[in-house]
Design brief:
CATH class: Alpha Beta
Number of strands: 12
Order of helices and strands: EHEEEEHEEHEEHEEE
Low-confidence stretches: none
CATH superfamily: 2,3-Dihydroxybiphenyl 1,2-Dioxygenase, domain 1
Shape: globular
Structural class: alpha+beta
Distance between the termini: 24 Å
Number of domains: 1
Number of helices: 4
Mean pLDDT: 92
CATH architecture: Roll
Helix content: 10-25%
């Protein structure tokens, strides 16, 4: 079973979002760093021992990247919970298992980000071609990607604490194919039939249970 690694919340402006989370959740996210060449930057907040919230936004200090920004963010103008990731300790085996069960999560790519102190974080993650071009992948971003941190310390260990991820659920007009893809990845996420495609996370915060969607 793959467990939630992090949930990804798009915002148009990172500084404004940091202030918002501090006032509404009672914990101030910590600036994470830049994604060099990808035109984005982020702030992070721990949601448990091995889970965290990534707040991601276009980075105005970087030039517009030649390729679309991740998670379709170039098409968004309002804050939204866009997708999520689950942890793998053997990403190649996880890819093989999912593919054999009928869903190809895409190949593993190397990822990197500069921390605010200048040090680098490195990881491997799966990404389908649609996520690179900006087109909606199967499941409309409800299907998590796999991430393997290798020797990099998990971000949940060194970011502001006080909040806990309670659950992740989703709605989709055609839930069965989405449920199947989640099952191939060994991911437990309820998917209900709904008029819209929506990912919903419930978080226990110092100011009570709150939802991101």
């Amino acid at each position: 079973m793959h467990l939630p690694d992090h949930i990804i919340y798009f915002v148009p402006d990172l500084a404004e979002a940091t202030d918002y989370f501090e006032s509404t959740w009672g914990v101030r996210p910590k600036f994470g760093g830049q994604h060099p060449g990808r035109g984005s930057h982020n702030a992070l907040l721990s949601l448990g021992d091995s889970t965290y919230l990534e707040i991601i936004a276009p980075d105005p200090t970087q030039p517009t990247p030649p390729q679309p920004r991740s998670f379709g963010m170039d098409r968004l103008s309002k804050a939204k919970l866009v997708t999520w990731a689950v942890t793998s300790t053997d990403i190649n085996q996880s890819i093989q298992n999912a593919t054999g069960a009928g869903y190809d999560p895409g190949p593993a790519y190397d990822g990197a980000r500069a921390r605010s102190d200048g040090s680098m974080m490195n990881w491997k993650l799966t990404r389908r071609d649609e996520a690179i071009t900006g087109d909606n992948p199967p499941g409309n971003w409800l299907i998590p990607f796999l991430i393997d941190w290798g020797n990099t310390p998990h971000p949940a260990k060194n970011n502001p604490t006080g909040c806990t991820l309670v659950s992740v659920r989703a709605t989709h007009p055609e839930p069965e194919p989405v449920r199947h893809m989640l099952a191939t990845l060994g991911v437990d996420c309820p998917v209900e039939k709904g008029d819209s495609v929506q990912l919903i996370a419930t978080v226990d915060t110092p100011k009570g249970l709150l939802e991101l969607k």
